[in-house]
Amino acid sequence: MKIAVFGIGYVGLSNAVLLAQQNTVVAVDVSAERVALINARKSPIEEEALAHWLAERNLNLSATTNAEAACKDANFIVVATPTDYDPQTNFFDTSTVEGVMRLAVETNPSATIVVKSTVPVGFVRRMREELGTDNLFFCPEFLREGQALHDSLHPSRIVVGADTDAARTFAQLLRDGALEADIPTLFTGSDEAESIKLFANTYLAMRVAFFNELDSYALSAGMNARQIIEGVGLDPRIGTHYNNPSFGYGGYCLPKDTKQLLANFSDVPQNLMRAVVQANKTRKDFIAAQVIAMKPDTVGIHRLAMKAGSDNFRQSSVQGVIRDIRDAGLRVVIFEPLLDKKKFMNCEVITDLEAFKKASDLIVANRNSPDLSDVADKVFTRDIFGSS
């Protein structure tokens, strides 16, 4: 099979690597720098497994900026371009996805288009009508930043928003590339597949919000949050997973997916979806208030990324905390070695760890790090269990 994958982000690259084990895969991106890195067998994304597989595995993978050439003769055209949430329209900006789909239909109408980008409910149905083809479907991803390739190789499930020969063939390609056997596979309608993605991520956001609010309560009342969380989690219906407090849910997926699902509920009575979105801002404001109340002269922010092993700063929860602290008049410095600039959010960026420690009276860390063990008395974190 020849497969073109548009977008060399977490989703696109992990899928390209997975599929290139047994197929000819061409990855397409507007960034010539990313394309060059892939062709040099280097990962443009900070993820250890992706870097290892690109460097060490025999993959039939190339990359290009030539979209038309990549589409020609492809059996499947996988679209994994960004769909950022647009607060003006209350919907995902699907323009890049639509552009690839139109190009695919024009240059290779016999190819099957597989949408991996997260889209609003009803998107595929609308695009089938606009493009005059049924030869496209949505196949959602359930990946963690920093663990994208692992989650592709060990998928919890495969969901395909169609039940056609092409849909079943593509599902089999994913199973063939995975390292797991007997992967639960579900063939659904297009709207249902799109809903599965949004509801799954909103549930995860709701769980994050729940344990964060539990932690806020414990912190306000001077109680041991860890003991409460452990006791609650011992109920098998709740479990002891995904329960580590943070400064809020963030990253690329959860903030935008929860807002998109809320927008899809515009004509449906609901309370919970809105509460999940609002709870995240409340938590960030609460964390900032705790920091401000300590009255430090200089607040140090240790790393901007949401998770260890990730280089993604997009909508990281700590940015909301920074904004509140900065607006309260406190001096804020940021340690982020991946930032190639002297200022971020009008705050000084320090790339030398030791200089950062000396400059900070209080160090705020969404996730604790062994790098801070020598200044543990300065660290404010809600990372109770030390997990990502």
TrEMBL record:
Q: What are the UniProt keywords, alphabetically?
A: NAD, Oxidoreductase
Please state what class of enzyme this protein is: oxidoreductase
Origin: domain of life: Bacteria
Q: Would the keyword GTP-binding be found if you checked this record's keyword annotation?
A: no
Instruction: Tell me the residue numbers annotated for binding substrate.
Output: 142-145, 197, 242-246, 250, 306-307
Name the Gene Ontology molecular function terms of this record. NAD binding; UDP-glucose 6-dehydrogenase activity
Q: Which residues carry out catalysis?
A: 253
> Where's the UDP-glucose/GDP-mannose dehydrogenase C-terminal domain?
300-387
Enzyme Commission number: 1.1.1.22
GO annotation terms (biological process) = polysaccharide biosynthetic process; UDP-glucuronate biosynthetic process
Q: In which pathway does it act?
A: Nucleotide-sugar biosynthesis; UDP-alpha-D-glucuronate biosynthesis; UDP-alpha-D-glucuronate from UDP-alpha-D-glucose: step 1/1
Q: Does the keyword Cell membrane apply?
A: no
Q: Which amino acid positions bind NAD(+), per UniProt?
A: 29, 34, 83, 118, 145, 256, 314
Q: Which reaction does it catalyse?
A: UDP-alpha-D-glucose + 2 NAD(+) + H2O = UDP-alpha-D-glucuronate + 2 NADH + 3 H(+)
Instruction: Name the family.
Output: Belongs to the UDP-glucose/GDP-mannose dehydrogenase family.
Q: What is this protein called?
A: UDP-glucose 6-dehydrogenase
The source organism is Sulfitobacter sediminilitoris
